[in-house]
Amino acid sequence: MAEPLRTPYVTRPEARRRAEAFLAEHHPSGHIPIPIDFLVERAHGIDIVPCHGVDDVVEGHGFLSSDLSTIYIDWDVYHHRVAHRYRSTVAHELGHLVLHAALYRQQQLLSLDEYLAFVQQCG
Amino acid sequence: MHYHSGKEARETMRFGHRVRELRLARGLSLREFCLTHGCDPSNMSKVERGLMAPPQDPEQLKKLAGALGLEERSGPWQEFMDLAALEAGRVPTDILDDEQLLAKLPFLFRAARGQKVSRQDIERLLTELRKA
Fold first, then answer.
1. Does A45 contact B7 at a Cβ distance shorter than 8 Å?
2. Contact A71/A63 with Cβ under 8 angstroms?
């Protein structure tokens, strides 16, 4: 059964420190624009997959899957010729991976009903 | 729920794994690779994840090999072709089982509109995840 969710508070300086550590390790040249999607795919073995309907359900342009294997990006955002929103969404989800992976791993959701109970308690 | 990296899952899908490895070795994200070479990112992602069989059209396969930087008739090129042929008969696991699908659902939601996520919302998302 899912445990009640207790998210640790991460201060802005701490979040910045973790972001800079990630870049120092995976993008030491610091060249702009940062190839954030490439870094996520290479550094974490994550798949970045376009998917319809994400915007409607999660109220964001993407999400990190519960098993930490995939970042789904809303279809329109993924295919938009201007990539700013796509890139910022990938970076946002990377933030969840870097800051919250332990939290994801704590949850053991074995059925859709358990999953629903869990997300409804969070909402 | 089983937690794994995409990399770990790909160990059993050698062609897709190889495509991804070669693409990353060229310094390209999936999106960038597809934009550069005119591929459909959805299909390419499915090939990489083993959810779609390797292309069997020889010209299409040669085009992909070239885009991945393989020199025609070289050892790695031949190995790539062999892998594609080897997996030609494999039935793609294009539909994830329920447990796999559950693991793909989002864990954290934004609650900007202050409403709880409904069963209908999740079922709609599951339908799309099956196709993604």
1. yes
2. yes
B38 touches chain A (CB under 8 A): no
Tens of pLDDT along B56-82?
A: 899 999 999 999 999 999 999 999 999
Distance from CA of B42 to the nearest CA of A (A): 6
Least Cα separation, residue A11 to chain B (angstroms): 19
> Does some domain include residue B1?
no
Q: Rounded distance, CA B69 to CA B18, Å? A: 12
Structural domain containing residue B113: 98-131
Taking phi over 0 as left and psi of -120 to 50 as alpha, with beta for the rest, B115 belongs to: beta
At A57, which CATH number? Answer: 3.30.2010
Is ipTM > 0.95 here? no
CA distances for B40 relative to A91, A106, A115, B56, angstroms: 23, 36, 32, 16
B45 vs A contacts (CB less than 8 Å): 47-50
The sheet with strand A47-51 has its strands ordered as A47-51, A70-74, A62-64
pLDDT one digit per residue (tens) for chain A, 123 residues: 455 667 778 899 999 999 999 999 999 999 999 999 999 999 999 999 999 999 888 878 999 999 999 999 999 999 998 899 999 999 999 999 999 888 888 877 778 888 888 877 765
User: Would an 8 Å CB–CB cutoff place B27 in contact with chain A?
Assistant: yes
Query: In terms of domains, do B52 and B105 share one?
Result: no
- Please report residues of B whose CB lies closer than 8 A to that of A69: 4-6, 9, 103-104
- pTM score of the predicted model: 0.87
Hey, of A6, A31, A42, A49, which one would you mutate to test binding to chain B, going by the most B CBs within 10 A of its CB?
A: A49
